[in-house]
Amino acid sequence: MRWDHLAENPAPARDAALFGADAVTTRTFDSPEFRGITFHEIRAKSIVNRVPGASRMPFEWTVNPYRGCTHACVYCFARKTHSYLDLDTGLDFDSQIVVKVNAPELLRRRLASPRWYGEHIAMGTNVDCYQRAEGRYRLMPGIIAALRDHANPFSILTKGTLILRDLDLLKQASEVTEVGISVSVGFTDPELWRTVEPGTPAPERRLDVVRTLTDHGIGCGVLMAPVLPFLSDHPDRLRATVRAIAASGATSVTPLVLHLRPGAREWFMAWLERNHPHLVRRYERLYAEGAYAPKWYQRRITGQVHELAQEYGMGPTRAGLPRRIPAPEPEAPGLPVPGLPAPGLAAPESTATATATQLTLL
Ligand code: SF4
């Protein structure tokens, strides 16, 4: 593993030999929620990362207290980053979790530096900072407290309901600085969720997070990601998802179509082969040009979601203003079976611009 850029002491080899025994402490826990997961605790050299200038990310600075993610989303594009540690991008990504145990103290030190100018810090952009490990390591309270104490603006993107543990801190921070929270909910279909996002809280629970945050005056948007071609893109499914998002009180919804970069692509396609083999050829065709679905497809989905959002009262709104509409009716029967004529491949109907936001699809 290549840990030398993460740990204070360069680590030459895996486990004690690879990590350097004094740089990395490897732990496993017996409790059911951590079964099969190995934690590698390190003392990082730095915690505030600058996003490379060429990146399409809409932020410049990030903090990522973890590497790897037990939420185990099959499509996660952060998978590739595990290969930089000489870990594999499949099961290792889901179960070999690097924990930067000194993240809060490093951040506090950086924020106090005269060379830091109080710029926005984005979290949850690589892996989920409220994944299960956070329940044990509790790094986020120290991180949010540091940001609050320095009135430093920040944002968090998560699928984790654990964020509600830190509600009081988030409220305190939002009184002194800009705090942006987004929850990721790509679809509400329970069967799809169980297989493609096996380690995450259910979509309904994530929308409860949105509801709770907005009830406490913290505006919360939803990143509707990823929209999965032929699996969650039928108009009825899009409608059910947007309706549920609107009912949660979300301040905004931002759709993002699945993209398949190396690292995620192999893992996702293997999953597709096991679970929906009849879709393999269609995905190969749709992603024949590379990591992204064709522009016309992205525009079509974005246009549909924006139209639905407007229909459900989620037009342009000011961040921080919760919007509540009646709870959704039960999902309409007769939703398409994956593999039947593609609901998502009709000619493009909308000219709305696809979002350029490139996030990890939390
Ligand atoms: S998409 Fe987000 S929540 Fe899912 S595994 Fe990746 S980092 Fe974790």
Automatic annotation (TrEMBL):
Compositional bias (Pro residues): 325-341
SUPFAM superfamilies registered for this protein in UniProt: Radical SAM enzymes
UniProt entry keywords in alphabetical sequence: Iron, Iron-sulfur, Metal-binding
Record region (Disordered): 316-348
Superkingdom of source: Bacteria
Residue stretches making up the Radical SAM core domain: 55-304
MF terms in GO: catalytic activity; iron-sulfur cluster binding; metal ion binding
Pfam families: Radical_SAM
Gene3D superfamilies: 3.80.30.30
NCBIfam families, sorted: rSAM_Rv2578c (NF038135)
Name recorded for this polypeptide: Radical SAM protein
